[in-house]
Design goal:
The chain is mainly alpha-helical. It is built from 9 helices and no strands.
């Protein structure tokens, strides 16, 4: 995933060329093959490319990510189809913990930045909510640091997809480090970008 970010930043700062586009495509393929939650991350970065890039860079960036997705589907698609039986309806599966309140995912997403900073100091999730301001600050400060938007797309492309799964399927992805690890780079880069 970080190689995708590196390629995007290099294209934005140094211009588009076949080598950078190839690296973007290879990095996206590798990320999706490594962790299936990199699929929505790749989609979020594609939306970022549509929003921020123009002309040849936009076209080549989207083609690179589309090619990576097609390659991923060709390699892993048959195995994914076989695993459909393991992903039952919303109230089945090993991540099902019982029915949550309708605010469960919102509470977990609000507390996510505090979780990524370290163990919570308070037992209450509501005490961690002020850290949720990190989702909105990049939009206010994007003129100061143009890459804050890229980091925000990374964070939203991971955290909010996990939250959506948790809310719709009554699972608890936002409780497991193995799922949160993909949120980390976006969060930490936003945090660092706000400090400089």
């Amino acid at each position: 995933g970080l190689c995708m970010l590196d390629a995007i930043v290099r294209i934005e700062t140094g211009g588009v060329n076949w080598r950078r586009i190839s690296i973007l495509s290879a990095a996206a393929t590798g990320a999706m093959l490594t962790h299936y939650f990199a699929i929505p991350l790749t989609g979020a970065l594609a939306v970022y490319i549509v929003v921020r890039w123009r002309g040849t860079a936009r076209r080549n960036g989207i083609l690179a990510l589309a090619g990576a997705t097609i390659l991923y589907a060709g390699i892993w698609g048959p195995f994914m189809l076989n695993q459909r039986v393991n992903v039952g309806p919303g109230e089945q599966g090993f991540l099902f913990e019982g029915l949550w309140s309708r605010w469960y995912a919102a509470k977990q997403l609000a507390a996510l930045p505090s979780k990524l900073l370290g163990p919570p100091v308070a037992k209450s999730i509501a005490a961690a909510w002020p850290a949720a301001v990190i989702y909105f600050l990049p939009l206010l400060l994007v003129r100061k640091n143009r890459f804050l938007l890229l980091w925000l797309f990374w964070l939203l492309g991971t955290a909010f997809v996990l939250g959506m799964f948790d809310q719709v399927r009554a699972s608890h992805h936002l409780s497991f480090t193995r799922y949160l690890v993909l949120c980390g780079p976006g969060f930490y880069l936003i945090f660092a970008g706000l400090l400089v």
